[in-house]
Amino acid sequence: MAKVTIIIISYNSFEDTTKPCLDSIYSCKTGIPFQTVIIDNASAGAIVKQLKDIEQHYHDMRIIYNTTNEGFAGGNNIGITSSTSDYYVLLNNDTIVTDHWLDRLISFLEQHPDVGLVGPSTNYAGSEQRIHVKSTDEAGILHEGSQWAHVCAGDHFYTGMLSFFCIAMKHEVIARVGLLDKAFGVGMFEDTDYCLRTVKSGYKIACLEDVFIFHKGSKSFNKLPDLNSLFYRNLLLYENKHQLVWEPEHNKYLTLILQYIRSAEAEPESRERALFKIANKTRMLEQLGCGHLFRNYAQLSMNTSASGACGQGLLEQCSRMPGLRYPLKSLSVLIHHGPKEVIKRSFFKFESMWQKLKTVLRESTAARRFKKTRFRRAFVILKEHGWKELARKIKRKLFPGAANPYDHLQLLNDITINVIEKQYEDDALLLPFSVVTTVKNEGDNIITFLQSMENQSARPQEVVIVDGGSKDNTAVLVRSYADSSSLKIKLIRHDNLNIAEGRNEGVRNTSHEVVVFTDAGCRLDTDFCRNLVGPLSEDKTIDLVGGIYHPVQYHAASEQLIPDWSTGDMAWWKSFLPSARSQAVRKSTFWKCGGFPEYLTLTGEDTLFDINYRRFSNKWVYNKKAFVYWKAPTSQEQALRLWKSYGTGDGESGIGDFQFYPHLIEYRKTWQIQDATTMGAFVEGYIAGRENRSRIEIARKKIKGVLLVLANRPFGCLQADDPLFIQCRDCIAANQKVIYVCTSRSAQGKRYFDIDYSMIELYYVDDFDTDEFVDRYRDILEAVILVRNTDNRQLVSIEHKILALQKSGYYKLNRDADIIQCIFRAQPANGDNVRAQKEQEVIDHYKRWFPIEKRQGRFFADMMIEKMPKWLDHDISSNRLSILDFGCSCGHLVHLLSSKYPASRVSGLDIEAVRINKALEYYPGNRFICEDIRKIPDRFDCIFTSNVLEHFENPFDIVAELLLDHLNKYLVILVPYHEMNRIEGHYYTFTEQSFPPLFRDLVLQYTTVFGCNNDYWPGSQILAVYKKQLR
């Protein structure tokens, strides 16, 4: 068995490629035994004849003749599987190798067991392996290459990608990573794909700078037609497969040059060699149009501060360069932490943290939008039953000026909506996806559903079925089917989950970015998954794809529930919210919006989910070719039950009820709508949901209070800097419900705000019932009500009612010129007794909490110190930087920092006196401040904040508003990582994408994720360090 097998692909060329390549292989010096395998990809007859003529001229060489062009990946796979060796070298036929090339490549792999792939330097490659050469002829290039290799003797660098013109790999790498992906066809991006898979498998990738191989460049590819189409096809395939953005060449040269700078800093004796390399790579960047960035840096004397000075200047210049796309975050890490972190993060996808400004729907759009909603269809049914007068009056009363409830609420931000009817065919381009469905007593339907899933033309990588507590044989049928099916089926059982909880649980157990939702009561069209996932795979800017649904059996009852999918009215499509029975989403965006709202007890979760999901979306697509057959009601009785459940869900969520609820109640009382009608069933459910709303909000959504606002202007017409809007936004962030009552229905200048609209109810003053409001929220222990004084007669009347209710003992009022502040009480009681009761509850809470906090707080403080980067530790200790622990709680981090940096002034700040008192009890020798940070004049070189920012809905707004004015240099943040199932009091889930590379004056320098998995914290934490730029 030969130690090394060299595999060469041949296609329609010989004299100017394959023959010179073979001559160089067998004439150059090497001490490694090898064999050569040539794979001919169906070349023309003359080429085949030439290959056969030389087959006997070289020892240990064999040729495999393919009947079809298997492409670069396919051809190399054939060569690998047809040979048995310890090492494999994939070599292009348009290369010329040099003395000892093979010895050095194989020796490096033998000496570095953690390296999976190794390649040489060259004159032509799509990576940082390429060096700059002045010569244009083969001899001149080889001479310059030998000079480069001589100067760089013994040098190598680690990278995330090598061009596969020449690559050496171990047999064990192939066994673990697999073969090259044939989906890339004849070539392009199959090498990028394989490198990424190698890195993900735990191997490093290295380039040997003392090995130079001449590469003519794309001689075979140039013979192919339509190279641009091939490039963009494979680029799309690569990015969709790995959910990454491909980086152009200059990104890699930027990081490599900084790596040279750091190596020179560490080894001053290598300064001249480093400058030689920097000058060469800079000239390469000049060919790419970016070299002027480094023109001055190449002349820097490599002293101790060169890296920081050069790197910071580089960051500042690059951040101002339009069109220069490069990994700012990785570059920042490299400046301060070295190349290992960059290699680890080189394929990390950074998502933009900027959101587009949202615009609102026009009035005409709002009017057309209503035509196909479930309420309009209900009115149509009423007409069919003969109640035309009722329908006309309800319509006129409900929608004065054709204002739609949802539109008036400003629920839907304006995003791009496309409607297509496209059949997708190329499964190779499809992203891997998971299917999630929930079941509960679906024994009659589940087998039909699973069979339709197995018959999909594009089958999912996994099917996650969440059983929310079936009492029939559903689980048994699923397990039985899974045992005999080739589908990968995960069954998750719980005793009692609602639909939203089940879907969220299903998503937690998926393995892929794209998630398809459907219902077990459906039968899927054969191309359903393919046509639903296709748009997401084709366009990475799409956030959601909605499908459509048809009834399994047409019936008068089901027709009421099926929209008219043939409509071409884009205004309707733009406001349509897709059902979760036919929907595909991206998991990252799914968790940004918090998933499906779990506090609703019956239905309405997909409506509220769609509204929240649009807050984080840019583009939705509806594909009419993606459809399911839904087991819709086949009797009027079933339809009425479904309508009632719809009403219950909407009543609990409160979506739009400020507009139509009072009218529905009025007409229910006045006209005595019979429950046997669709509208009657809906109203019945709506009333039940409405009555249940406060209970589920308090018990399940943890509403802590209510803010009542009486104002002249509609909520959607407020400005973002209006104190009233800020008050509403802050209350929502603090989990307080906002009840907004206004005197105007004006829609001019409306805007969409990025807030949780399920936490706000908007009323026109005529529709607001003060007594009903008090009855709904009297069980909340304490709720702050803010009333704006106004001369409007109706608002003054509401104010008088509130003042009259003071006698009942429910309120304690504080009145000033413009604001009435009321404190809701759980029950009529003496004010002093209530206050004492409240204070005792606080004392009891802290008695339970302090022992837990003492252990947990110390653990987080220890972790923050341990995971802090060494360069930051050095800067703090060397320069005696002042430090503030923002949100210091009981002072554990303050104590540790004071002990570690005795020369630094360390302070702790918290707004809760009970915590500060405990901190002073624990650590009496440290400095603690009980104050709002905005009220102190001090500035600090470093601000640390441990497990604080997750308590805010918009944490970086807090950073901007509270911390930046007090920060001189470093901001160090420790927060929970990927806390998808947030504990009470946590309002934001942090991921890598949560930390923008640039934020205001802050540049991200360092991040690290570490697992805890202990009694103190069950998940992971992420530490991030920002540095403030000097203006």
| Architecture (CATH level 2) name of the largest domain | Alpha-Beta Complex
Distance between the termini: 65 Å
Number of helices: 36
**DSSP, total strands:** 32
Look at the helices and sheets and give the structural class.
alpha/beta
Name the CATH class of the largest domain. Answer: Alpha Beta
CATH superfamily of the largest domain: Spore Coat Polysaccharide Biosynthesis Protein SpsA, Chain A
Which regions are unreliable across 5 or more consecutive residues at pLDDT < 50?
290-410, 665-676, 806-832
How would you describe this structure to a colleague?
It is built from 36 helices and 32 strands. The model is unreliable at 290-410, 665-676 and 806-832 (pLDDT under 50). 40% of the residues lie in helices and 19% in strands. The strands form 5 sheets. Strands 1, 2, 3, 4, 5, 6, 7, 8 and 9 form a 9-stranded mixed sheet that branches. Strands 10, 11, 12, 13, 14, 15, 16, 17 and 18 form a 9-stranded mixed sheet that branches. The radius of gyration is 34 Å and the shape is globular. It has 5 domains: 4-218, Spore Coat Polysaccharide Biosynthesis Protein SpsA, Chain A (Alpha-Beta Complex), CATH 3.90.550.10; 247-350, no CATH class; 415-634, Spore Coat Polysaccharide Biosynthesis Protein SpsA, Chain A (Alpha-Beta Complex), CATH 3.90.550.10; 703-828, Rossmann fold; 845-1028, Rossmann fold. Helix 34 (892-900) links the parallel strand 25 (883-886) and strand 26 (906-910). Helix 15 (374-384) packs antiparallel against helix 16. By secondary structure, the protein is of the alpha/beta class.
